[in-house]
Amino acid sequence: MKKTESLAKIVFLLFLPGFFYGCAKQTEIQNFTFSGMGTVLSVIYTGERNEALENAVKKDAETVESELSYYRESSFVSILNREAHEKEISVPAHVCKLIEKSLEYGEMSGGFFDITYKSTGELWENNGNKIPDDKTIEEKQQFVGGDKVSVNCDENKIKFAGTGVKIDLGGVAKGYAIDRAGEILKKHGIENFIVNYGGDMLFCGNKGGKPWSIGIRNPDKPAEILKKLELGTSGCKGVATSGDYERFFMIEGEIFSHIMNPKTGKPVKDAKSVTVIGENATVSDAAATAVSVALHEKERVEKIMEKFRVKIYTLSGEDSVLKEW
């Protein structure tokens, strides 16, 4: 199976002209870019250049990837997937809390966000470049569901219900890493900054007293901005995008979204673009995934918006009409 990355997040969500305009003459603007999590990671902040801060952010991103990546054999996720069906596995407190929070997100979303989706999702990666048959998918679906993972964060131990249970924290890991980077910046006294990890972002403070502005672009007409959004001048906002154009793969000549529906064990369809704005990047990341799956169930999307306390903007169908929920 061949996976393909696109520039969707850059297409869908770009800073509007005037980025940091109004404060450039009053204070220094720093930025640094590095690679990680299979994408480009970047940070922009105000004040004097601080190499210790930048190194701390880079190191922390590496730590998150090494601990949470489904594809790294030494990560805690991989260890759990190999061994947690046999016995309780001890993990660091922050990993346990993230898994616990992810299971809570699953409940909040009505099961449209589910870290155990990989129990079936792995079929689409390891099936000899063939589309999995319905019978095989149905057999694997018995291992999908938040109730298949037992979490004891008093002792920081995790246990799976069966040999077929697999988890993947890809729906929250990037947002989680962004929020951690934000905390590092704050500890170094930085109030105005943007953390941008592959298009998922955290905006904090303001740009010279003015609110941060972003634009949602039409993926079919990149020059067209469908909606301008202002994020305020204080506190922080997490922004996440998800959709068919973000990542996809091809099997038997057919293109499939990388986003899996945990309720069917199959890739979602027609989730062209979902943009979510929430209180932090982790919440926005999880909600964007949930909305991409539940997109055509109006009541469920509205419930996700209520439970996660987020703003939602979606594009679907051939007309590329932006819907504000």
Keywords, please?
325 residues; alpha+beta; T-fold; eight-stranded antiparallel beta sheet; 9 helices; 19 strands; globular; disordered N terminus
What does this protein look like?
By secondary structure, this protein is α+β, with helices and mostly antiparallel strands. It has a domain at 2-50 and 194-324: ApbE-like domains (T-fold), CATH 3.10.520. It is 30% helix and 28% strand. It contains nine helices and 19 strands. It has helices at residues 8-12, 51-68, 76-83, 93-108, 118-121, 134-141, 173-187, 281-294, 298-308; strands spanning 2-5, 13-15, 29-36, 39-46, 89-90, 149-152, 157-160, 193-197, 200-204, 213-218, 221-230, 236-242, 247-251, 254-257, 260-261, 266-267, 273-278, 311-315, 323-324. The strands form five sheets. The chain has an eight-stranded antiparallel sheet, covered by helices on one side. The protein has a three-stranded antiparallel sheet with strand order 1-13-14, with no helix packed on it. The protein has a three-stranded antiparallel sheet with strand order 2-10-11. Strand 13 (247-251) and strand 14 (254-257) form a beta hairpin. Helix 7 (173-187) packs antiparallel against helix 8 and helix 8 (281-294) packs antiparallel against helix 9 (298-308). The longest helix is centred in the N-terminal third of the chain and has 18 residues, at 51-68. The chain is globular and about 60 Å long. The two termini are 35 Å apart. Mean pLDDT is 88; it is low at 1-14 and 16-24.
